Amino acid sequence: MVRVTAPNPVIPVPPADLPRTLGELRAAGHRYRTVKQELRDNLIARMRTGADRFPGIVGYEDTVLPEVERALLAGHDLVLLGERGQGKTRLIRSLAALLDEWTPVIAGSVLNEHPMHPLTPASRAQVAEAGDDLPVGWLHRSMRYGEKLATPDTSVGDLIGDVDPIRIAEGRTLGDPETIHFGLVPRTNRGIFAVNELPDLAERIQVALLNVLEERDIQVRGYQLRLPLDLLLVASANPDDYTNRGRIITPLKDRFGAEIRTHYPVDLELELALIRQEADLVAEVPEHVLEVLARFARAVRESPSVDPRSGVSARFAIAAAETVAAAALRRASLLAPGAVAGSDDEATRPEAPVARIGDAVSVTSTLRGKVEFESGEEGREIEVLAHLLRTATAETFRARLAGLDLSGFTDLVAEGTVIETGELVGSAHLLRQVGTVPGLAKVLDRLGMGDAPIPAEAAAGVEFVLEGLHLTRRLGKDVTESGRTVYGGRG
């Protein structure tokens, strides 16, 4: 059996022209700054140049980000409060990009001590002895971010530190500071430390953070040791009224300089932008299908059948988009068992995987676990989601195709003709049933497919029109025992 291990992260190599001793560092004019001063200066520099301050953060430009910027400029530790899937962790991690790319440290220091500002007795003695010849190492900003997911089994030792029994066994006395094994917080000294889901941290463990936030130091068991830590502490939490697992104790809340509320995308365009940015799509998903999924996510979020305290994560719409893309890829693969990639022969050319509106039906069952329903809806979860999906489809149909003459489609079935589609109906078969339809070119143009869509894109447009006409009561629809969908007249 081969043992699989996670790949080691690539640690950037410092440029060769950086100072290597304390004397060289002083000669280069380096100035010591605290982490919060560093973040403030770099944030102001980006503001003045117009550079992107928080890459990859969508929908917070006018609401959350200005509050985060004010907190950083004020030098405040902060807690982000919001429902699940609102990008709290991503926002916290993006703060590390505001640190200097490289910062000097005393070579070998576990606390990332600055050569001009040593903390521990051992480091102060080392600086006094070596003077300007003190070796200087360089730490990349990616190594200055620490994070801990709060869990009930987290200990003070994990966060702050504890006595190292191995060092005691080596002959050191209990009063020797060198016997301390420092925890995650002091090891992130001169960086940013994040605690995710802070209320899940036991209250007695939260007490250990009080000194870190106010006095900026740590206490380890009975040691008379004061280490003035230099860091920005950031936390995330769900609203107090949602979780019964715990709470942020009042003294700790009071020590955070800023409490910032996050939110879901405020409008449809931002929801769409988030899906486009985050979804890893294995097939083409047309814009009108993405819009249906964005409207669907917003409808679920606002539904009285869904517990509003739990929220509906942005991951819901992202997973939905990835699911319909996977459905399109599955169809294309199953319909072309003898296909040859790159073939010029239409009979052996594989069908391009393009998602259709019918592919969205599967998300009602695969994603129901992402939604917490009100207790009265037990057993009706899929029914509720299916209704909301139909509503989102109808709204998108009206928004995209309002004012177009679609009589060419209704005339197709006026005399008893039916059009069959479904999960495993190929694009060519669907288009042959429809033939040349007056108004199809305008429909495809409205749906953003251009003047020369490929057959799979045209089939996606046709299926969307058929489903929209059914939802607006202009076409009938039946689902056969084999799972195929048949559109026909309403008679």
From TrEMBL:
GO biological process terms, semicolon-separated: regulation of DNA-templated transcription
InterPro entries: P-loop_NTPase, Sigma_54_int
Domain Sigma-54 factor interaction: 181-240
SUPFAM superfamilies given in the database record: P-loop containing nucleoside triphosphate hydrolases (SSF52540)
Single GO molecular function: protein kinase activity
Protein name as catalogued: Magnesium chelatase subunit I
Phylogenetic classification of the source organism: Bacteria, Bacillati, Actinomycetota, Actinomycetes, Micromonosporales
